[in-house]
Amino acid sequence: MLENCLFCKIIRGEVASHKIYEDSKVFAFNDINPQAPIHIMVIPKKHISGLNVVLEEDEKILGYIQVVISKIAKRFPEMKNGFRVINNCGVEGGQTVFHIHYHLLGGRIFNWPPG
Ligand code: 5GP
Ligand code: ZN
Question: Range of 14's domain?
C-alpha cells in the first residue's frame, strides 16, 4: 500500500468508488470515465506500479487476477458473448494511474487494432 496512490486510497476506502468485487488480494470498481457500457478496473491490493516492474513473486497474483476477471465477467449478461481486458503500461502505453490495473470492458463490440 502506498500512502499517496489513488488506487491504494480507493482500496482503503479513502476515495469513494462503486465496488464490484473484493477479496483478500483483489479489488474491482467501476471506472469513473467509462469507455463502454461496462468498464471495471480490476487491481491487486498489492501496490505494483505497472506491468513493466513486476517481479517473479508477482506471478501468483497476476495469474489470480485473470481468474477474478473471468468470474466478474460471468456475472454480467452483457459480457456473455465476449469482453475486452486491457493493461496500459507506461506513458507510451497510455497509463495514467501508476498502480497496475486491468480494464474490463463489455457491453459493446470492440474494434481491432486499438487506437
Ligand atoms: P489508465 O489510463 O492508467 O490505463 O487507466 C486509469 C483509469 O482510471 C482511467 O480509465 C480513469 O478513468 C480511471 N480513474 C482515474 N481516476 C479515478 C477515480 O478517482 N475513480 C475511478 N473510479 N476511476 C478513476
Ligand atoms: Zn497503489
Answer: 6-106
| Number of residues in the chain | 115
* Number of compact structural domains in the chain: 1
Separation of 97 CA from ligand 1 center, angstroms?
Answer: 7
This prediction has a pTM of 0.98
**What does the angle CA 95 – CA 111 – CA 67 come to, to the nearest 5 degrees?**
60
Selection from 17, 25, 57, 34 nearest residue 108 by Cα: 34
Domain-located, residue 115: no
Ligand nearest, relative to CA of residue 85: 1
Q: Report the CATH number at residue 99.
A: 3.30.428.10
- Residue whose CA is at the smallest distance from ligand 1 atom 15: 32
Q: Report which of 76, 61, 85 is spatially closest to residue 107, judged by C-alpha positions.
A: 76
Q: Is the residue at 15 inside a domain?
A: yes
Q: What is the pLDDT of residues 37-81, one digit of tens each?
A: 999 999 999 999 999 999 999 999 999 999 999 999 999 999 999
